Amino acid sequence: QVQLVESGGGLVQPGGSLRLSCAASGSIFSIYGMGWYRQAPGKQRELVATITSGGSTNYADSVKGRFTISRDNAKKTVYLQMNSLKPDDTAVYYCNADLRYYNGRSNFWGQGTQVTVSS
Predict the structure, then answer these.
(1) How far apart are the first and last CA of the chain?
(2) Per residue of the chain (119 residues), what is the pLDDT tens digit?
(3) DSSP3 helix / strand / coil % (the chain, rounded to 5)
(4) Residue 30: in which H helix or E strand, if any?
């Protein structure tokens, strides 16, 4: 059984910072791309940032310069450092991983972690 478990969400004031983590577990052979997505109430899920196995990154324009994605391959973990947070960043954040496991290759999602930016 493969699982992605996110942590690190919470309530923060505008201008504050949070660091999200997402750890993959189970019978995993390789992890290719990993990423963070978010979904605000009444909106579609959108890409926040992605990172390849080699460390190449891609960001949504709305978070460039404020968010940093990174990964620790040995720990099978992806991180999202979020600085200068704005109320518009309020959403449920989901991690995603493209990985090879005992039953083939597939895309997996975490359960989501709530981030609320409010004074």
Answers:
(1) 40
(2) 899 999 999 999 999 999 999 999 999 999 999 999 999 999 999 999 999 999 999 999 999 999 999 999 999 999 999 999 999 999 999 999 999 999 999 999 999 999 999 99
(3) 5, 60, 40
(4) strand 28-39
Name the residue type at position 106: S
C-alpha span between 27 and 83 (Å, rounded):
34
Taking residue 43's Cβ as centre, other Cβ atoms within 10 Å add up to 9
Q: Tokens 């309530």, residue?
A: 11
Q: Which regions of 40-118 does DSSP assign to beta strands (E)? A: 46-51, 57-59, 67-72, 77-82, 91-101, 104-109, 113-117
For residue 43, what are its two tokens? 């909106």
Q: SS3 of 51, please?
A: strand
